[in-house]
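step 3/5: co-fold with tryptophan
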Amino acid sequence: MPNEGSYEAALRRSQEIEADIEAGNVGKYVMLTGDRPTGRLHMGHYFGTIKERVRLQNLGVNTNIIIADYQVITDRDTTEHIQDNVYNMVMDYMACGIDPQKTMIYTHSAVPAENQLMLPFLSLVTEAEMERNPTVKAEQIASGHALTGLLLTYPVHQACDILFCKGNIVPVGRDQLPHIEITSKIARRFNERYGKVFPEVAGLLTSTPLIPGLDGRKMSKSYGNAISISMTEQETAKLIKKSKTDSERFITFDPENRPGVSALLITAGICSGRDPKEIADEIGNGGSGQLKKYTTQVVNDYFAPIRERRHQYENDLDYVKDVLHDGNRRANEIAEKTLCEVREAMGMVY
Ligand code: TRP
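step 4/5: write tokens
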């Protein structure tokens, strides 16, 4: 693995912070993370990050979630369905346990002062540093588009997201660490040049193993292998039913050679709190029919209360809009304050 040393250091730092939070020292942390509103949230989001956000929120950490609407156009040329996606994302968050009284939810596009940080921040990074970012490259290739200026600079935009509210912890997977590094670099360079305004930023490395999509590939809406939080029980059953397994009847847990069967076992395992191997042993000769039936049942049982809550929000769009307006209002206050500090530090007060 490249950057093994920096990964080890980031992991150690993450564990120290985790222990500190567990010990009750929540006051010094500000969490910021978010998602691009490109569709509905699915199980991968839920177990990979949403659950962790809810945990931090309920421990009393200052938690903030950005719905990164401007980031949607880093690699695509349309904002079709964006309003619907944004409202539904707020519903997904709240259904999963995000409490808007405790967690600020806001959209990029509604907070001009946050976006203005982009100008001084861009002066603190070089083109080479941006081009080195592995996620930028991967996303550009996946998009099939030429590299846009916005995609090239989006790690800097994320630094604005994190730093405008003085975020100092960002829950991330290992592959996202380069983003944290560039944000830390920007904060440090700004402080060195103009005086201390921004905090040290660290990634909180999530310990949840990556859940594969139903076919064993990376979970993604575009592969049709993802169970969305907003699906009905019937839609969930249908998706699981048509997922591809293999011709061997006897069920075993073998992610390498039996990706379809093993993905179902992992999915069932995470929703039931059981070991996938144990589930495989229990089903054995029952074959993939029984495995699918069991998986459907435990997924639907797990998400039943979440979906129930979601229905309430679906029927109260006014409330959803209020939540977002309130989050955007608070984000603007915070961003204005930080921008004032930035102007002062830079001597741009007239
Ligand atoms: N890039 C993230 C995604 O695609 C969303 C995001 C935007 C984000 N700004 C952020 C995540 C700041 C963490 C911190 O899902």
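step 5/5: annotate
Strands lie at 30-35, 62-67, 103-107, 169-172, 202-205.
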